[in-house]
Amino acid sequence: MTPHINAKENAFAKTVLMPGDPLRAKFIAENYLENVSLVTDVRNMFGYTGEYKGNKISVMGSGMGIPSIGIYAYELFKFYGVENIVRVGSCGAYSKDLNLYDIILAQGACTNSAFQENYKLPGTFSAIADFDLLLSAYNNAKNLGITVHVGNVLSSDVFYQDDVDAWKKWQSMKVLAVEMESYALYAIAANLGKKTLTILTVSDSLITHEETTAEERQTSFTKMMEIALNL
């Protein structure tokens, strides 16, 4: 056990789906997995292990932000033998080509966080997804008839930005959307020799100001769940 996960040894599958919301993890476990069991519940950050189409798979919440996912991803990789983490989350659209419920495969993640300073690198680390997972997700989406957008996202440390137009600078660099976790996930995986991918559903748009409800984010982002489960 770790300070943040009370699961027993070998409780997790080699692949873990990781939504930010623990209730979304519960939704995935209850609606998609068979022979499912709750394996961790510290601070109500629920983690489950079950089977999908005969394959063992786990799902666990990450919480919000780089510090939170940084803790859970590191402990899963380092202490529980997890090899792959697929983040299934929500994001705010920066691109005019994105509508609510559109799917993004995050090929890379920018950040305004100081997270990379942990590694004392003599430069700026480019956080990218594992290519095999990215390609598999892209092909899964095609087979399921789901259109996806592939590109760069911003992992932001700030939700309520003081400069309300700061996002437009990222938009000018063709960054598709903003979320709060992927940079840390990709960096940790690179450091530990593991594999990661982020799949996002557009929950709101900074251009049109449309947005989904909390309940919709919890239960209706099923397309990205199906893409991830079929990896």
UniProtKB/TrEMBL annotation:
Enzyme class at the top of the EC tree: transferase
Enzyme Commission code: 2.4.2.1
One GO CC term on file: cytosol
Keyword Glycosyltransferase: yes
UniProt-listed InterPro entries: DeoD-type, Nucleoside_phosphorylase_CS, Nucleoside_phosphorylase_d, Nucleoside_phosphorylase_sf
Entry keywords, A to Z: Glycosyltransferase, Transferase
Active site: 204
Keyword field contains Hydrolase: no
Site (Important for catalytic activity): 217
Superkingdom of origin: Bacteria
Every Nucleoside phosphorylase domain range: 15-225
Gene3D superfamilies with a match to the protein in the record: Nucleoside phosphorylase domain
Gene Ontology molecular function terms on file: purine-nucleoside phosphorylase activity; uridine phosphorylase activity
Reactions catalysed according to its record: uridine + phosphate = alpha-D-ribose 1-phosphate + uracil; a purine D-ribonucleoside + phosphate = a purine nucleobase + alpha-D-ribose 1-phosphate; a purine 2'-deoxy-D-ribonucleoside + phosphate = a purine nucleobase + 2-deoxy-alpha-D-ribose 1-phosphate
Binding site for a purine D-ribonucleoside: 4, 179-181, 203-204
Family: Belongs to the PNP/UDP phosphorylase family.
HAMAP family per UniProt: Pur_nucleosid_phosp (MF_01627)
Protein name (database record): Purine nucleoside phosphorylase DeoD-type
Taxon lineage: Bacteria, Bacillati, Bacillota, Tissierellia, Tissierellales
